[in-house]
Amino acid sequence: MIKLLKCEFMKTRRRYVFVTALVITAAMLAWIYPRHRSADLLRLGWMANLYELPLINSIFMPLLSIIVSSRLCDIEHKGAMLKQLAVTEKRGQIYDAKLLYGLAIMMFCVGLSWGMTIAFGYIAGFEGGPPIRLYLLYLLLTAAPTIAVYIFQHTLSLCFKNQAVTFFTGAIGTFFGTFSMFLPQLPWLRGSLIWGYYGALSFVGLFDWSKDDRYKLAHFDVIGVDWKFFAALIFICAAIYIIGREIFKRKEL
Amino acid sequence: MNEIVKTTNLTKRYKGAAAVSGLNMSVKEGRIYGFLGPNGAGKTTTLKMLLSLVRPTAGEIEIMGRRMNAENRIEILRGIGSLIESPSFYGHLTGEENLKILQTLLGVPKRNIDKVLRIVRLENQRGKKASAYSLGMKQRLGLAGALLSFPKLLILDEPTNGLDPSGIQEMRGLIKSLPKEYGMTVIVSSHLLSEIDQTAEDVGIISNGRMMYQGALDDLHRVDETKSLEEIFLDLTERERSL
After folding, report:
1. In chain A, where are the structural domains located?
2. Of A235, A28, A225, A61, which Cα lies nearest the Cα of A133?
3. CB within 8 Å of chain B, chain A residues 5-24
4. What is this model's ipTM?
5. A89 touches chain B (CB under 8 A)
6. Model's pTM, two decimal places?
C-alpha cells in the first residue's frame, strides 16, 4: 500500500491537483469573507458562520470532490494504465490507494478552510472568541459528508472512462443537495442524498430574524445535531465504499 | 520442453455469445508463440484472460506450472510482462518517470530502467514527455515497461499495430532477440500472417474463438506444400466460419 501511495504522488507530478484544490478552496473563502458585515453580524459572527457555512460547503466541497477525483483517475484512463496496474497489483489496493490520496487532499482543504474561517473571524473582528467545541463539531460534520461524496465521485471516476459521467452526476447531486437545504420541512430529502448531508447535519438555527429589523434582535442557537443522520451517513459511506470497491474489482479492463 | 502457458477449455461468453470457446493453448518455454487470427477472432480476449483482466466464463489457466486462482494470481502475474492493445503510459510524465513508477511497483532495481531504455533505444528520449512521443516511441515505451522486470513470459498483443515499416522491422528484431538474449518466452498476437511468419517459431491460429491449428510454424508450412501459408491460413479460418 505504501508503494502504491508513493506512486500516486509520483503520478500527479505536473497535474497540479493540489494547486487546483487550493485554488478552489481559496475561491470559496474569497466568496464568503471579503464583504461588509454590519455591527449586528460582527456581534453574531462566530455563530453566524456555523449557520451559513454548511450551505457554502454543500456547493464547494462536492465541486472540489468532482475535480480532485476526476484529475486523479483520468490519468489512468487516458494512458490505459489500469490494465497495466491490475496485472501487478491487487485491484482493491489500487482503489484504496487512489482513494486515500484523494481523501488526503480533500481533508487538507476541509482543514484549511476551517482554519481560515477562524482566522478570518479574528481579522473581521467578530465579538469574543470562537466556540471551539462547536467549531470542532462543525469540522467533523463537514468532513463526514465530504468523505461520503468523495468516495462516490472516486468510484465513478475510476469506473467510467468518460469523465463527463462523473461531472454530470456530481453536478446534479450538488444541485439537489443544495436545493434540499431550502426545504427544511422535508428533512427526508436531505437525508436521501449524500450531498444533502451538509444541511442535514447543520446544528445552528437562526431565530427572531425579521425583514425590518434584520439581525438587530436575531440570535443563533444550537439546535443540536441529528445523530440519526450522522449514523445514516456513516452507513452510506461504508456501503458506497464496499460496493464501489467491489464494482472496480469485478470490472473487466 | 516445458509448457509455460497451458489453457484447458478456456471459454469466454458475452451475453451468451462466445468470444472464446473451449480454447486449449499450449506455449513452450523459451519459444516465440505467434497467436494469429483475423480481427475479432478472440486473440485479445484470450490474452486478457491470461492476465486476469477479463474473467473466463469457464476453463483453466496454468502459467509456469501453476494453476491460476484468486490467491496466487498476482504472484504469478508479477512474472509476466505485457503489452495489451495500446501501450500504457502517463502522457504528462517523461518516459523515465513512467518507468520509475513501474519500477517502484515491481520492486526491481533502478538500473533496470537504464537497461530497458537501452534495449528499446529510448535512452536519448528518456526526459521527453510520453505524450510528445511518436506512436513508435510510445509502443517502445510500452515494451520497455513490459520488460522492466525481465520476466520469464512476455505477452504482446499486436505490438506492431500502427507502426511504419521501419518501426515494424525494428520491433520484430527486438522480439526475436528476447528469447536468445534474456531467456524469455514471448506470446505475440497479430492478425497479419507475414508478421507471425517472420517472428514466431510456434503458432496458434484462432478463428471465431476456436483454436484451428496449433504447432510449429514449420509444420504449418508442410500441411499442404502446394499451398502458400496465406492460403492455408485462409482455409483454416474460412473452415471455421462455414461451420
Report:
1. 2-250
2. A225
3. 6-7, 10-11, 13-15
4. 0.83
5. yes
6. 0.87
